[in-house]
Amino acid sequence: MRDLTPYQSARRLGGNGDVWLNANEFPLPVPFELSQNTLNRYPECQPKLVIERYARYAGLQPDQVLVSRGADEGIELLMRAFCEPGKDAILFCPPTYGMYSVSAETIGIEYRTVAATDNWQLNLPAIAEQLDGVKLVYMCSPNNPTGNLISADDIRQLLEMTRGKALLIADEAYIEFCPQATLASWLAEYPHLVILRTLSKAFALAGLRCGFTLANPPVIDLLMKVIAPYPLSTPVADIAGQALSDDGITLMRQHVAQLNDNRQWLIDALRQCACVEQVFASETNYVLARFSDSPTIFKTLWDQGIILRDQNKQPGLAGCLRISIGTRDECERVIAALQLLSGASREHA
């Protein structure tokens, strides 16, 4: 434990900014208010209204839904339910979300990595060679931090490859930004498919800590054996239920449309900046870009109160910074700062 490196969340990394574009949050607060006044009582383990509303939203049955403290708890619950420390392994394909490895290390489970291909797709032959002893395969689509979708044909091949051997966990934290790509309807065909979701991104409720695991009932039943007695506090269940109402879902979709418009504006503007070498396509609420001098750009913007996320240490992402999509004003501030830097570098040259 002394040697473990904790997950470096945006808040742990700090900063004194007023333009926070490093945690893929919605940039403005949402107008929900508490309606429950039963804090003297313990909450339901799986609040009925939240489960029913999420199942309806996802097009599933309530017995296919588990709610937890963010999708991060779902990541860990799966390891605790299906992996024996010191014996079983998990597998994932970097560059990707950092909590898969952190949770495995914390529990004492071996993790194996198979680097993504040059275009950040699955290296299926290499994965096949590593599957012996693997109980869980984590796959993020759209992927964080690259922003791309994993090929549906490759996912089907991976599901066939893991059938009867391992669970495939599809992390869909950002799926609201490309809802046509969800695998939720595939659960009927693949008993070993599991899907992770969250209210932190498109639903603008990162501070709520509310996530969902979607799976077939036998998997949900096993997860219920290891989940904490009261994973959701009463206020969290209260707000989550409101967010999943018809009005709440309509509001979320309006927010997604705004962010998608801002994302396209930011991508177009980044491509005009001299200090930007490459801007990658995104199906999410963030954009990954490669810069000619990313350490200087990161530090300069940091000092101006514009906080981005450095991805240099991720495999294959040298020179890359990830920029969350903020308000249009925040996006404009990023571009103005980069244009000043580009002008200064040209004068220096």
From TrEMBL:
CDD domains named in the record: AAT_like
Species assigned in the record: Duffyella gerundensis
Domain Aminotransferase class I/classII large, first and last residues per copy: 33-338
PROSITE patterns linked: AA_TRANSFER_CLASS_2
Keywords, in A-Z order: Amino-acid biosynthesis, Aminotransferase, Histidine biosynthesis, Pyridoxal phosphate, Transferase
Name of the encoding gene: hisC
Protein's UniProt keywords contain Transferase: yes
InterPro entries linked to this entry: Aminotrans_II_pyridoxalP_BS, Aminotransferase_I/II_large, HisP_aminotrans, PyrdxlP-dep_Trfase, PyrdxlP-dep_Trfase_major, PyrdxlP-dep_Trfase_small
Source taxon at top rank: Bacteria
Gene Ontology molecular functions: histidinol-phosphate transaminase activity; pyridoxal phosphate binding
Record-listed E.C. numbers: 2.6.1.9
Subunit structure: Homodimer.
HAMAP family tied to this protein: HisC_aminotrans_2 (MF_01023)
Family indicated by similarity: Belongs to the class-II pyridoxal-phosphate-dependent aminotransferase family. Histidinol-phosphate aminotransferase subfamily.
Residues recorded as bearing N6-(pyridoxal phosphate)lysine in the entry: K201
Taxonomic placement: Bacteria, Pseudomonadati, Pseudomonadota, Gammaproteobacteria, Enterobacterales
EC category name: transferase
Any one biological process term the GO annotation gives: L-histidine biosynthetic process
Catalysed reactions listed for this entry: L-histidinol phosphate + 2-oxoglutarate = 3-(imidazol-4-yl)-2-oxopropyl phosphate + L-glutamate
Listed pathway(s): Amino-acid biosynthesis; L-histidine biosynthesis; L-histidine from 5-phospho-alpha-D-ribose 1-diphosphate: step 7/9
UniProt keyword Amino-acid biosynthesis, yes or no: yes
Cofactor: pyridoxal 5'-phosphate
Protein name, UniProt field: Histidinol-phosphate aminotransferase
